[in-house]
């Protein structure tokens, strides 16, 4: 398994990726990318699909997506909370505090 076993190492790795993305997107025009939270796709699927449709300038019919093999499971949102102890959750929240604030999760 390639993934880091310590939360602080995983947090640094993920923060490095997000910081790199944040720096790179400064050089891109705002209409050249669309950021979507997974939770938005799950909780507001039709609105989010409309946003994607508008962004790529292709009409996407929500009914077609809903009836396709495309599967979005609401169970995945927040699932991580059931997989960690209270101490681990505190450690994760502390390690990712800047990222959580950056993306309005706190």
**How large, in whole angstroms, is the Cα Rg?**
17 Å
Bulk shape: globular
Distance between the termini: 31 Å
Helix share of residues? 40-55%
What is the helix tally? 6
What amount of the residues lies in strands? under 5%
Q: Provide the structure class.
A: mainly alpha
Low-confidence stretches: none
Number of DSSP strand runs: 0
Q: Describe the largest sheet.
A: none
Mean pLDDT metric: 84
> How would you spell out the order of helices and strands?
HHHHHH
Task: Set out the fold topology.
Layout: H1 7-25, H2 38-43, H3 45-56, H4 62-66, H5 86-95, H6 97-102
What does this structure look like?
This protein has 106 residues and is mostly helical. Helices cover 55% and strands 0% of the residues. It has six helices and no strands.
Label this structure with key terms.
106 residues, 6 helices
Describe the structure concisely for a colleague.
Helix content is 55%, strand content 0%. It has 106 residues and is mostly helical.
């Amino acid at each position: 398994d390639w993934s880091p076993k310590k939360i602080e190492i995983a947090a640094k790795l993920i923060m490095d990726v997000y910081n790199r993305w944040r720096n790179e997107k400064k050089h891109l025009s705002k209409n050249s990318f669309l950021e979507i939270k997974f939770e938005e796709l799950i909780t507001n699927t039709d609105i989010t699909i409309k946003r994607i449709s508008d962004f790529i300038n292709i009409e996407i019919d929500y009914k077609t997506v809903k009836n396709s093999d495309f599967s979005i499971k609401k169970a995945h949102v927040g699932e991580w909370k059931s997989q960690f102890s209270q101490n681990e959750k505190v450690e994760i929240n502390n390690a990712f505090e800047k990222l959580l604030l950056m993306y309005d999760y706190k």
